Amino acid sequence: MSTDLTLYSNPMSRGRIARWMLEEIGAPYQVKYLEYGTTMKDKEYLSWNPMGKVPALQHGDTVVTEAAAICAYLADAFPAAGLAPPMDQRASYYRWLFFAAGPIEAAVTIRSLNMDIPADKQGTVGFGNYERMLDTLEYACRQSDFLAGDTFSAADVYVGAQIGFGFQFGTLEKRPAMEKYWDQVSDRDAYKRASELDNAAMAAQAPG
């Protein structure tokens, strides 16, 4: 497979998660920034990403969308980076990747829209309620240094980014175990490089 990697992103988007993951694997890549409402809705882009959003990753002839999927894909496509546990040790890895992509995303979105799930309907939604989701996330952060055991993985990129965004925008309550976990994963050089690159792009896009 071609090693050509192109990330379609916007510095004010979940594309920052994919950029962090790309910095972790250490392979060369390029970034094409798209604008909301214009280039994200371009006919060619929509032909392989009908959602019309970012991030999207092009790897040779392969296209991957959704930030969690991009993280998991890159971990498998570049095994030398060591960002996915061996297959017989992936239970926690998959568990927390999909927990963040499902219950965390849904619970945070519902709460940010000031919507309440009635107690008698909480069994019909994947996250139950916000507090239950938060308790479970706190539990995950308490178990070990990293979500999939003693080694940093793609799960830490995705879940860590969700926690970082939650703290930044006030959508996640700060709890000690979660703060300790975030402090640890955000201290990685790859995260710092990715943040600096996207922050610089964001400043360049700013009017005036």
Task: Please provide a written account of the structure.
The chain is globular, with a radius of gyration of 17 Å. The chain is built from 8 helices and 4 strands; from the N terminus they run βαβαββαααααα. The protein has a 4-stranded mixed beta sheet, covered by helices on one side. β1 (5-9), α1 and β2 (30-33) form a beta-alpha-beta unit. By secondary structure, the protein is α+β, with helices and mostly antiparallel strands. It is 51% helix and 8% strand.
Task: Give the SSE map.
Blueprint: E1 5-9, H1 15-25, E2 30-33, H2 43-48, E3 56-59, E4 62-65, H3 67-77, H4 91-112, H5 130-143, H6 154-169, H7 176-185, H8 189-205
Parallel strand pairs: 1-2
Antiparallel strand pairs: 1-3, 3-4
Helix pairs in contact: 1-3, 1-6, 1-8, 3-6, 4-5, 4-6, 5-7, 6-7
Helix content: 40-55%
As residue ranges, the low-confidence spans are: none
Secondary structure class reads: alpha+beta
Specify the overall morphology: globular
Radius of gyration: 17 Å
Average pLDDT figure: 94
The biggest beta sheet, please? Answer: 4 strands, mixed
Helix count? 8
H and E string = EHEHEEHHHHHH
Distance from N terminus to C terminus (CA atoms, Å) equals 43 Å
Report the portion of residues in β strands. Answer: 5-15%
Task: Please give the number of β-strands.
Answer: 4
Strand line-up in the sheet with most strands: 2-1-3-4
